[in-house]
Q: What sequence folds into this?
């Protein structure tokens, strides 16, 4: 019984610390954030923080890892309709909904000094998931790594911009924008 109590306290402490991260990063930025600020905001002592995380970078790594595991799961489980399709429309819509459901956390990632890092990680995950199902990433029409950066970087940029603009568009609308990006040539997009 005592073990359960200890485990639930640890879970509650982690939740408080992550909420403090969500509350403070938009104000201070991640680079300027201190463990002391996190502890004060979470209402915990430094010892409790260090029972859960090595430092603030470890907190960020674990938080990102949890979030991006969800992204990878969504993109990995949905098979594209054809071998030429990057990800199914259902996968993209589910990913958009997942991002919307995690809006407070995603805002920390995309609307702070973590934005470039987060966008790049999203691009990496898309590349990893797609390449695990399609061999053509080793010999695309455009030389690697340019091909992956063009395709997956563009998708990640659209997600980033959507979050940075306050997720104004509905999940369905941003899904349509992503679908158009995937189907249209650059000339067709800007004409």
A:
């Amino acid at each position: 019984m005592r073990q359960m109590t200890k485990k639930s306290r640890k879970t509650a402490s982690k939740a408080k610390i992550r909420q403090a991260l969500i509350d403070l990063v938009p104000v201070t930025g991640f680079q300027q954030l201190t463990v002391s600020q996190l502890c004060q905001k979470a209402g915990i002592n430094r010892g409790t923080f260090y029972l859960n995380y090595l430092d603030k970078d470890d907190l960020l790594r674990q938080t990102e890892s949890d979030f991006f595991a969800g992204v990878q799961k969504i993109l990995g489980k949905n098979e594209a309709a054809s071998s030429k399709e990057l990800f199914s429309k259902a996968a993209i819509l589910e990913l958009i909904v997942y991002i919307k459901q995690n809006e407070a956390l995603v805002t920390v990632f995309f609307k702070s000094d973590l934005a470039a890092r987060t966008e790049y990680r999203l691009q990496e995950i898309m590349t990893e998931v797609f390449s695990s199902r399609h061999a053509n990433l080793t010999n695309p029409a455009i030389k690697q790594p340019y091909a992956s950066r063009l395709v997956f970087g563009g998708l990640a940029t659209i997600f980033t911009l959507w979050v940075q603009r306050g997720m104004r568009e509905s999940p369905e609308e941003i899904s349509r924008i992503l679908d158009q990006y995937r189907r249209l040539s650059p000339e067709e997009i800007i004409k």
The mean pLDDT is 89.
